[in-house]
Specification:
The complex is a heterodimer of chains A (525) and B (368).
Chain A lengths: L2 E6 L4 E8 L2 E4 L9 E2 L1 E4 L5 E3 L1 H5 L8 E3 L12 H9 L3 E4 L5 E5 L2 E4 H20 L3 E8 L5 H13 L4 E6 H11 L6 E8 L4 E8 L3 E10 L4 H20 L7 H17 L5 E12 L2 E10 H26 L8 E5 L6 H11 L12 H13 L7 E3 L6 E5 L3 E6 L7 E7 L9 E7 L9 E8 L12 E7 L5 E7 L5 E5 L8 H20 L1
Parallel strand pairs in A: 1-11, 11-12, 13-18, 15-19
Antiparallel strand pairs in A: 1-2, 2-3, 2-4, 5-6, 5-7, 8-9, 9-10, 13-14, 14-15, 16-17, 20-21, 20-23, 22-25, 23-24, 25-26, 26-27
Helix pairs in contact in A: 3-4, 3-11, 5-10, 6-7, 8-9
Chain B lengths: L4 E3 L11 H8 L7 H8 L3 H13 L3 E3 L2 H7 L5 H9 L3 H5 L7 H15 L11 H24 L12 H18 L8 H22 L3 H14 L4 H31 L3 H14 L3 H14 L4 H14 L4 H14 L2 H13 L4 H15 L1
Antiparallel strand pairs in B: 1-2
Helix pairs in contact in B: 1-3, 2-3, 5-8, 7-8, 10-11, 11-12, 12-13, 13-14, 14-15, 14-16, 15-16, 16-17, 17-18
The chains are: A alpha+beta (525), B mainly alpha (368).
Chain lengths: 525, 368
Amino acid sequence: MGKTIGIDLGTTNSCVATTIGGKPFVIPSSTGNRLIPSYFAITQDEKTLIGVRAKRQSITNPKNTIFAAKRIIGRRYDSREVKIAKDKLPYEVVAGPHGDARVKCGGKIMSIPEVSAAILLEAKKVAEGFLENSIEGACITVPAYFNENQRQATIDAAEIAGLKVLRIINEPTASALAYGQKRGKKNELIAIYDLGGGTFDISILELGEGVYEVLSTAGNTYLGGEDIDNRIINSVLEDFKKTHNINLKDDVMAMQRLKDAVERAKIELSTQTEATISLPFLTETSHGAIHYNTVITRNKVEDLMIDLIDQTIQTCKNALEGAGLKKDDIDEVILVGGQTRAPLVIKKVVEFFGKQPNRGINPDEVVAEGAAIHAYNIGSPLPSNILVDITALSLGIQTKGGAFTEIIPQNTPVPITKTRKFTTTYDNQDAVRISVYQGNEKMANDNELLGEFVLGGIRLAKKGEPNIEVGFDMNSEGILKVTAKDADLGTEQTVTLEAKSRLSEEEIREMKDKMSSLEVELKEQ
Amino acid sequence: MNYVPRLIKNIHTLPGLTEQESLVLSLIDGKTSANEIAKVTGFGLATVNKTLEKLSKMDAVEIQHRETEQAKSGGQSIKELYMSYENADLYTILGVSENANVEQIKQAYFEKTKMFHPDSYYARSVPAEDKHFLVDLYKKVQQAYETLKNKAPKKEPETAKQSSSAKFETTVIKPQQQAKQEPAHSAMTDQIRERVKKARTYYKIGMEAFMKSNYATAYLNFKLANSYNPYEKDYMDKLKETEKYMKVERHQELLKKADISIELNKPQDAIDFLKSALEMAHEKKHVYYKLALVMHDFNQSLKEAKQYCQEAIALDPKNPDYHLLLAKIYQKAGLVKSSVFEYEQTMALGGKTDDIKTEIKQLKSMLK
């Protein structure tokens, strides 16, 4: 029997861990790196690179290096999120055949799950190399605020990579599991503040003896360390334009170098008050090359990011409200994600919660550790810890006037079954369209469409008379089953929900074949 | 029943254990089942189980998933387990009492979660039908938790130390509250159901005794019925009624004893019995009179005799016997004037006039 692993599939970095004797253990790559940059590239000579090797060449090959794929995974091409991302990404984002967003890389069009699959493949390779064993299954983490389509796309990615998904779990919840390993047996209320490269999540959990109960969760899938990087980049660009009167934006290679340098400077500023950005030969002009040198201060960067951090604190308030708790009720605050190393983040968190955060964990590795623990737990015949997770987003259907009527509210523990009665909107209506949406907005269209189906054969009657029962059943693995039935006639329709922009089975099979040949290729590298 | 015990504190030794218990403790590693320990040690499963029970009470060992394990080892099928919860009310599902506080409800929920959450048997091969039952069961647990946690008092649970009348008031209100929130269920836990059953039995025994005028037995049984189910109005009514009868009975008994003591020429005992009877007498005047009489006849404190007699008169001023006794007491104390007055009162109320007339004459002549 093989081992189980946990994978933190991050926006900028990924991490893989396993358990040894039930204790989490982060697996280093053969070169000793504990983090795998979430980068994928196809070089000029059509070689595929993943992770650290892909990142290393990103400056010279920006158009064919895919990173931050997590930002657009499971999103429709015409969504707001993809539009925003397109402007910031150096590679090309195009529309896929199912209305999904895809990327162009090395002249080929790739689906996002394929890109993520490549990262997972690298993680799998690292794990297999270290364990000298096949991998039986993996727990993969996603932000708590990921919707069903994004989760499904992540599952697709794992399937393409030939990994058996034991469970998709939420990043903050995974962190809680890892933290829980290091604590005593007492009951406590904890807050997990997770600010990663691309997303922000806050979850409130109650840890009892052997039970981890998520009380509430809130977040923003579009707020992370990269947004701070972008703000710094923009400020540098302005400065550059002032001094040299050159707009660097269109110079893809210069932009990539700048991005790289800014990220490094930002990390440096976590421990120092000043950092130097030195980029010789940044760009060419008719007068020759321009060498760019500047010093950025922590104060300056903090000014640039303060409103983003204030937003996260507002979200913390919402999460506390969702759990029906006060700030003082929280026993421990745990910081997760590299961006939480920033002194301003720590300061704001201390200000809000009124206590110092727990410093006993590594914010980069804790998510993968927790995922590994969970994989171990559910793979054990008598698990010592049970995780009770909740729905971060409401689930419901579209009703009259395009309104969103929730059936499973936000912050409901799973598994759960809920039914609600509906009726027809006009006389002799014999069919209704059930459009299933997920999200916390009042109008259906502002939420994510998960799927649609039609219930026909409704008893002919005046409007408002027929009884149509819509049932939602979500299991502990997060799979949603929707049932609609005419309660008077017994006509019934059951649909296991499939994400709308999901790949077809055939596509997945094809991609899987491609990936396994890539696996062989990678092993030969 | 076979299960795998786990260490809670990772401590393999504890003070105050027998050699046998220490050996069992040392073998617990989270992988070895109770059966295996029994085999290895040769103690037998019953002994091992007993020891594990003890160790778990000492918080050293966790005996996990006993209920599901039990269900799977053939003692009770999952279907049976599910059925046993099917029509249960929320309290029973969660396994808490009706007045459990939030903390107790939470603990019960955590326990049930460890038993029934789908992840707890994810890695075991459970038949699809059983899985269905278990998932449904867990959903019931979730629902019970959500409902009860919002309903439960935040503070300590109410203790049974309330006065009977306070209990009585809750009796009337409680069923209505329940009816509103849970029309389908009687909202009683297993424990409470057990208590109600016991109360009914005691009540029955009490009634039998009551019919035979065996009030002491009846009283005891009604009292038990009441303590097991303070919400049943009949039990309380019957208890009060019996109490009344018992007092009468006891009172009469005391009076009888007092009479016997008088016959045995033991005035002090008679006085004690009468004083006790006084405490539970419904009609106190007779006891007062009797007390005064004993004190007068046996030459006890005339002052007390006078007081008791006056008490009797205060309760029933028109009884000539009381006045006659008082006249005699005054006479004995040498208070002639008062004595004459009381004799005259007796006469006016229709006492035995002939005797009294001569007495009055004598006294009046004394006065002259």
